[in-house]
């Protein structure tokens, strides 16, 4: 009887793993970090998820159906770690701009009836897996506790707060320098074009002005938004820049290209400053391209002589390929590459 039960369990486990392999799109990978893992970890940061040059943290990993509810998952975690479910709170890990990771947002019981895939899309849309911190509350001891609640009086109603989205947009001048900060408050159902209208009205721009809105992570452009994109797709606390699209980009030649540009100091990982987009003109000697770059940056001749320009492979650790004046940049087969400006950051603190 015992052997039959063991065989049934092994068969069920085999069938489950086979289903995960055959239908991976149905499953969500979840890594759990416990306080004990924090305490044992001796490396940089709180835990090491993927930096393979250092020992990776040994973490409990789960593969669950994306359609599984948070309530069911929480119950499973309770049974797995032998912790009462009412003492469990799970937090979403996020990667911060200084490249450290921290538990950032708790998954509240409001999500108990939601699927784990909905939670992933709501909280970490950019990633295909969930990394969670398991917080364990102390058991209730029956003592009476006096709790004082302090309320902040807002200028808007709670209903308006819940139905609208608030964020800041940093407006750039023609020389890629922050000129203004624009507070945006729009219904969550609004589209990006409504942000453009607010900017045009506030800055008294021509109504025919063409504006670019893009977000920045780790000092590089992550996404440029289309006028019809819903603002609900814009992540909270992301850095947003807006600018009037330069004329050379509007009147782009058939063989011209637009490339992303970012600043770094010696190593591409040491990025800084405000990233932007720049036109690579077909057949233009790099000595002329540098003059346009200097104007775009608004730098004087003395400061610009300290800037070295390189082609950077975004998705590899290849060394920067520095460019000589006699090169024609459009001859490079640029696809996913970026243009890197190698120089030290100015003393002024820049948002990114």
Give your account of this protein's structure.
- The protein has 352 residues and is α+β, with helices and mostly antiparallel strands.
- Helix content is 24%, strand content 30%.
- The chain has 9 helices and 15 strands.
- It has helices at 2-22, 35-40, 70-81, 116-123, 158-163, 192-203, 247-250, 286-297, 301-304; strands at residues 27-33, 61-65, 88-95, 101-106, 129-136, 164-172, 178-187, 211-217, 220-224, 239-244, 257-265, 267-280, 308-312, 321-322, 338-342.
- It has a 5-stranded mixed sheet. The protein has a 5-stranded mixed sheet with strand order 7-6-10-8-9. Strands 12-11-15-13-14 form a 5-stranded mixed sheet, with no helix packed on it.
- A hairpin with a 1-residue loop joins strand 11 and strand 12.
- The longest helix is centred in the N-terminal third of the chain and has 21 residues, at 2-22.
- The protein is globular and about 80 Å long.
- The model is unreliable at 347-352 (pLDDT under 50).
